[in-house]
Automatic annotation (TrEMBL):
This is DNA 3'-5' helicase. Residues 581-592 have a biased composition (Gly residues). One of its GO terms (molecular function) is helicase activity. It comes from the Bacteria. It catalyses: ATP + H2O = ADP + phosphate + H(+); Couples ATP hydrolysis with the unwinding of duplex DNA by translocating in the 3'-5' direction. Belongs to the helicase family. UvrD subfamily. Residues 631-711 form the HRDC domain. Residues 553-599 are annotated as: Disordered. Its EC number is 5.6.2.4. It comes from Kitasatospora aburaviensis. SMART domains: HRDC. ATP binds at A24, G25, A26, G27, T28, G29, K30, T31. PANTHER family: ATP-DEPENDENT DNA HELICASE UVRD2, UVRD / RECB / PCRA DNA HELICASE FAMILY MEMBER.
């Protein structure tokens, strides 16, 4: 159970008693770590499967977790979304706590919101209605009532879609209408479950007796309402049975009420918590990781102070490609042709994605790919196993499996051939139909079932297991229950928000212009930082090939008034801006050639030179030791360096950290360099600083006074962040 885990993942898996906080960077194997933790607890007898509840935010993620736990032999563990877990408890305890049947669940609240708006005398367009519904949802998950909504909007700096007083009125009438009709919405499921547990200690004790071990994935996306329910689940002892997993740098849903505060403050709430940081990136190449680290190096705010600097574990790959186009159609067409080249080189279509900031940007890419004959799927359609053609195919396959001998499958050589024969009765052909649309989407679904049969047959044959229709249908049923759909063989078109949690061999990030990313309505500093995190999520979806592009105008011949996103300043070629340097492997992303040639970048994890623990904090990595490990720093040299730095800062009229940070001076005083080459490998000493200050620093290290330099005020040299 533990053999295939790295040291940090192993630390997660063996920390069976809470509170445990796992800070997991993108691509670091967090799902692997937490599922192995649960399975290890079950297999070792510490956990009873029925007493474990793992919650996450999407049915797909919960399904993936159930599938992995099933493969690890941890049958019986509950892995659900917050809403699914709460709904089960609400249905079970409602008759006892309240009496009578559970109110009917309102699947879609838009129609009722529209009715409430009409009752308030408001005329609301369809697009406005969707925004109005989102405001009601935000207010409920942040536990804000109708009367407090206008004040809350003003305090939060939220961009309200219409007058807050009108929204509050609609919100109030909506709640009154629900109560009168005896229906509840999805937010009410959480609210009512939490309220029952708060009001009925006997029921709360029963729930806590049932579930003794909790795991919460994507904890950076927890809302105040979800945290309230979680507190009731875990009980007065707080985090004694709790393990949370998240990454503040991937907080991209604050507009829905999510907040990283609970993750960032977990150690404050639970001082005894075990904290494990996962920074070994197994997904992306060093070039992709370097760009991702560079984006976060420029970030500001509380989440940025807790950022994780990833260390790629993969071999080097191609550099990210940055491309500027005259107009959007040219950007889309050229992107399509580059995708064609990748497909011709052997990259599968399902391993390519085009990601954009808003869904409205998809049309030009749908058209471009259709014109080029490149298959694609637009992310956000029905779940695979809920599609009508897939349900219909399942019925046919079950019938053929029960029949045993069937004219359709008799004589077909192997499982995959039998599946093709059965699906042929519903129009499946070896070649896809021309064009796109519903017919093509239906064929892609059936083709995915055929590919799954091929993969299942190979796996079963290699393992010596049954590879017949009955076994295949059982596998389909298990996947359907776990929402574990096979990939449709087409290029994915998706918004950056929809891409969260997914990954591809090749990713094209398109439309990266000011006003689109960051989006034009991102006004506050925190809103802009969330847009930066959104781009970070997009970058970290790529395993190997990464392309970033923007168009100067919307249409051919239009005015070239657009500018590339500020987030790439200092990272893309030809730009220069603060904070361009970061850890990871150097590449085109704004790293000066001299730094790479000096060999200062570390290719693997940085370990403490005293205790050999993997270091994740920036200061510790710079010093190459844990803060708690003994220092070998030359105190006298450190003070001489600080005094010299102060003089340089005065000459330049700049803050002292622009010359060197305290951490860099400490690193120099701990590992005293005797040559220019030794100085170059110290983190924080780049090529420009080596040329400018190297001679003076080496003189101080040798116990000599540096030569007086002429006053040299550098215009726009930002140094490095404090």
């Amino acid at each position: 159970m533990l053999a295939g885990l790295d040291p940090e993942q192993r630390a997660v898996a063996t920390a069976l008693h809470g509170p445990v906080c796992v800070l997991a960077g993108a691509g670091t194997g967090k799902t692997r770590a937490i599922t192995h933790r649960i399975a290890y607890g079950v297999r070792s007898g510490v956990y009873q499967p029925a007493q474990v509840l793992a919650v996450t935010f999407t049915a797909r993620a919960a399904g993936e977790m159930r599938g992995r736990l099933r493969q690890l032999g941890a049958e019986g563990v509950q892995a659900r979304t917050f809403h699914a877990a709460a709904l089960r408890q609400l249905q079970y305890f409602w008759p006892r706590a309240v009496g009578g049947p559970v109110p009917q669940l309102l699947e879609r609240k838009v129609q009722l919101v529209a009715e409430a708006a009409a009752r308030c005398g408001l005329r609301v367009q369809r697009t406005e209605l969707r925004d109005l519904t989102a405001e009601v949802e935000w207010a409920k998950v942040t536990q804000i009532g109708p009367e407090d909504y206008p004040t809350a909007v003003q305090k939060s700096g939220r961009e309200a879609p219409r007058d807050p007083a009108e929204t509050a009125q609609v919100y109030r009438v909506y709640e009154e209408t629900k109560t009168r009709r005896g229906v509840i919405d999805f937010e009410d499921v959480l609210l009512l479950t939490a309220a029952i547990l708060e009001d009925r200690p006997d029921i709360a004790d029963q729930v806590r007796a049932q579930y003794r071990h909790f795991t919460v994935d994507e904890y950076q996306d927890v809302s105040p309402l979800q945290q309230r329910l979680l507190d009731q689940w875990t009980g007065p002892d707080g985090g004694a049975s709790l393990c949370v997993v998240g990454d503040a740098s991937q907080t991209i849903y604050s507009f829905t009420g999510a907040t990283p505060d609970y993750l960032l403050n977990f150690r404050t709430r639970h001082p005894e918590a075990t904290v494990v940081k996962l920074v070994r990136d197994y997904r992306s190449t060093p070039q992709v990781v370097h760009l991702a680290n560079g984006l976060l190096a420029q970030a500001r705010g509380q989440a940025a102070r807790h950022r994780l600097e990833l260390v790629s574990q993969r071999e080097a790959g191609p550099e990210p490609v940055y491309t500027e186009y005259e107009d959007e159609p040219t950007e889309a067409e050229t992107t399509g042709r580059r995708i064609q080249e990748l497909l011709a080189a052997g990259v599968r279509a399902s391993e390519v994605a085009v990601l954009f900031r808003t869904n409205g940007q998809s049309e030009v890419y749908e058209q471009a790919l259709s014109d080029l004959g490149v298959p694609y799927q637009l992310k956000g359609a029905e779940r695979f196993f809920e599609r009508p053609e897939v349900r219909d195919a399942g019925v046919l396959l079950r019938g053929a499996a029960r029949a045993g001998s069937d004219p359709l499958t008799d004589g077909a050589p192997g499982l995959a051939a039998q599946v093709r024969a059965v699906l042929a009765t519903r129009g499946f052909t070896a070649e896809p139909p021309a064009g796109s649309g519903a017919v093509r989407e239906r064929w892609e679904s059936l083709a995915a079932l055929v590919r799954l049969a091929e993969e299942f047959e190979r796996a079963q044959t290699a393992a010596g297991g049954p590879a017949d229709l009955a076994a295949y249908v059982a596998e389909l049923d298990a996947r359907a229950a776990a929402q574990h759909a096979p990939a449709v063989e087409g290029v994915t078109l998706a918004s950056l928000h929809a891409a969260k949690g997914l990954e591809w061999d090749a990713v094209f990030l398109v439309g990266l212009t000011e006003g689109t990313l960051p989006i034009i309505y991102a006004k506050t500093d925190e809103q802009v930082e969330e847009e930066r995190r959104l781009l970070y999520v997009g970058v970290t979806r790529a395993r190997k090939h990464l392309s970033l592009s923007w168009a100067l105008s919307r249409s051919p011949g239009g005015r070239a008034s657009r500018k590339p996103t500020r987030f790439l300043d200092g990272l893309r070629p030809g730009s220069g801006a603060p904070g361009a340097r970061s850890g990871g492997r150097g590449g085109r992303g704004g790293v000066e050639p001299g730094e790479r040639q000096a060999g200062r970048r570390v290719r693997g994890p940085v370990t403490c030179r005293v205790c050999e623990r993997v270091l994740t904090e920036a200061v510790e990595r710079k010093l190459r030791r844990c803060e708690s490990c003994p220092s070998t720093m030359d105190e006298a040299l450190y003070e001489r360096l600080r005094e010299w730095r102060a003089g340089q800062a005065r000459k330049q009229g700049a803050p002292a950290y622009v010359v060197f940070t305290d951490a860099t001076l400490m690193a120099i005083a701990e590992d005293v360099p005797a040559s220019r080459q030794e100085l170059a490998v110290i983190s924080g000493v780049g090529a420009m600083k080596l040329d400018k200050y190297g001679a003076a620093v080496l003189s101080l290290c040798a116990g000599e006074e540096p030569e007086e330099d002429p006053v040299d005020v550098v215009d726009g040299d930002p140094g490095e962040p404090a």
